[in-house]
């Protein structure tokens, strides 16, 4: 493990409209578990110049969006955009939420976690692997796992991205004074695959300094068997009924969390295009971010 606590490398600082942005590398040197891929990171921009999608990420970073001092509550959230482990929906599932949270006095940190790069080959499970993805018990996914047949490359990527998530939390807590953050009020929210990565980071965490105080997953079911961690944080889940496979996975996650004695709240909106993020569609799913904020208040964050 690199000793990131000795120094943080700010790779750029720039002014955004009414927001300050700082980008911090998660590790000094080569990230743990990184492959030898020399592929270059790619990004596409929208017509307005905002970053739409980022792919081929091998060097993870954390982008800080801090609220105005007069509004700051001390609460902070690590945001994991989704993208099927192959890209990050950076603006709609990252930056826009960060800016919305800033208006509520919440510090936000958009995590550019490691992805499955375009030079990685698909490695299928061995012949005869049980098709548990299609198996239901009383209409519930087995062990609340929405992706039991992930190949070995995806498993490695999830493991690396989960460690990136834990490292992000350590960095935020280490720099709590500088960023005016309460170290006891650091949480995580993930979209789609980002939610699955976040859940993996929590379920396989033996380091309390990297355990978030609260977690939320937005249309992101678990990508592996759900095992309740010690000191499990309260969980918020939101998805839409129009995306039935994801909704089933989120319901199974909710039940598993509650059955194990954890705190959890779930919202399944009747209408809303899958992958809604911060897009306003004039559908019930538009309400998710307000429900999330009310939940934060009710949980004392």
From TrEMBL:
GO MF entries: hydrolase activity
Keywords: Hydrolase
UniProt-listed InterPro entries: AB_hydrolase_fold, BD-FAE-like_dom, GDXG_lipolytic_enzyme
Keyword DNA-binding: no
Residues annotated as domain BD-FAE-like: 157-206
Coiled-coil boundaries: none
Name of the protein in its database record: Acetyl esterase
Origin species: Paludibacter jiangxiensis
